[in-house]
Amino acid sequence: MLRRLKVFLVFAAAVFASPLAMADGEQSTVTPTEARAIAKEAYVWGFPMVESYKTLYAQAIDKSGSNYRAPINQLGSSANVFTASDTAIVTPNSDTPYSMIWMDLRAEPLVLTIPRIAKDRYFSVQLIDLYTQNFNYISAGTTGKEGGNYMVAGPDWKGATPPGIKQVFRSETDIAYGIYRTQLFNDKDIDAVRKLQSEYIVQPLSAFLKKPPPAAAPRIDYPPYDETRANDLGFFSYLNFLLQFAPVQPSEVALRARFAKIGIGPGKPFDADKLSPDMRRALTDGIKDANAEVEDFKKTKINTKQISSADLFGSRAFLKNNYLYRYVGAKMGIFGNSGSEADYSAYFVDADNQPLDASKHAYVLHFAKGALPPTKAFWSLTMYDGKSQLLVDNPIHRYLINSPMLPSIRRDADGGITLYIQHASPGKDKESNWLPAPDGPFYAMFRNYDPGDAVIHRTWIRPEMTKVP
């Protein structure tokens, strides 16, 4: 707590050394031009947090919603894989039934107990802070499959590792997220997955140690999430709410001070109606500038394969405070895995570098014999609607094609595999290889869990989608 206070005092000194854009609802001397630049920077920096809150509210607060899973600090499991009816997370993975927990770490840490996992089954627990940084993993590659007790602590927790705890993981923020992924081999395997999910246990540290609990943290009034508001100036109100749970990091003191010039601060009210027309326009333009930057980044860096998902997701140390990367990752598919855990490769354009659109073309994806992606676990190709970024409803209820499906996939005469990516059925004789697309723009995500060395070192070259003549 003392360290947090010291950082806050440095932050406060930096803030009050210059006039604020808004103080008690009033503007100061910040110019619209400066405000526009700050708004863009703050949107790039804070978008992952607000987008994360969308999922938090849907899964842990809004009990009337279809995406509700469990209250804060309780584990919620989905007995089935994601379908087109799941809307809380964009670009969801539908290979692995999920368990998830939103953690409030202010009062005390939580203990996550993992059972022994079979050697041939992929599993992972991805630990994510409010910035959407992956601060650690419980998985085969990091902690093994033997099972055990792991503790997740907030930024203010102090003390030695408690008895019975194999490892302590520290979150930068008071609120954190845990995503459990458990591989489903096929439809007949669902009961085995459900049994494993029932053996994932979460409890407060005091309960684990069989000691009296500490005093409860103050109650949080979670504001209802409204997508229209979050994509406009209401974004800054959501951001201010979330900053209460994100203590200023030493490397971000100056950055937070700049944000304060336009009224961004922990728990501070942000009333867009009190802005002058010029200032309101400046902040709105800053948001537009940020969105334009991510679209340009996708065209110039993602579509040209200069940057992959492995560059966009990871810890703060891995990302090195590259807020644009973090923003692009959250925009394309929030809560993506770190490259060491899974490799993602997105298809946004075809072999001719044209946007994918199944209302205009049918496509094929051909893997030559012996050229399937090397993997230590499994790979999958998942289809998404280009507008909603969600799974695509289709008559055969197929959202992906993955390596466990290979025995049922038809081989070409030469031993290779051709996948048919299109809206209408390619014909009954080819439906085993059909990945249904929407009647319009789409994109697809190629995921490889625990990828082989050739994927990690980029010596395996993926095939491109080509138009059917």
The count of domains is 3
The largest beta-sheet arranges its strands as: 3-4-10-6-7
Distance between the termini: 65 Å
Q: How many beta-strand segments?
A: 19
Low-pLDDT segments:
7-21
CATH topology of the largest domain: Immunoglobulin-like
Describe the main β-sheet briefly.
Answer: 5 strands, antiparallel
Which oligomeric state applies? single chain
Mean pLDDT: 92
CATH superfamily of the largest domain: Domain of unknown function DUF1254
Structural class: alpha+beta
CATH class categorisation of the largest domain: Mainly Beta
Morphology call: globular
* Structural Rg: 23 Å
Q: Would you give an account of this structure?
A:
This protein is of the alpha+beta class and 469 residues long. The chain has three domains: 2-54 and 226-296, no CATH class; 63-209, Domain of unknown function DUF1254 (Immunoglobulin-like, Sandwich); 341-467, Jelly Rolls. It is 28% helix and 21% strand. The chain is built from twelve helices and 19 strands. It has helices at residues 2-16, 32-61, 190-199, 205-209, 227-230, 234-243, 253-260, 277-302, 309-312, 316-319, 323-333, 453-456, and strands at residues 22-23, 26-27, 76-77, 98-104, 110-114, 123-129, 134-139, 148-153, 167-170, 175-182, 201-204, 342-347, 363-367, 375-385, 400-402, 417-422, 434-436, 442-451, 466-467. The strands form five sheets. A five-stranded antiparallel sheet has the order 3-4-10-6-7. The chain has a four-stranded mixed sheet with strand order 9-8-5-11. Strands 12-18-14-15 form a four-stranded antiparallel sheet. Strand 6 and strand 7 form a beta hairpin. Helix 2 crosses helix 6, helix 2 crosses helix 8 (277-302) and helix 2 (32-61) crosses helix 11. The longest helix has 30 residues, at 32-61. The radius of gyration is 23 Å and the shape is globular. The termini are far apart. Mean pLDDT is 92; it is low at 7-21.
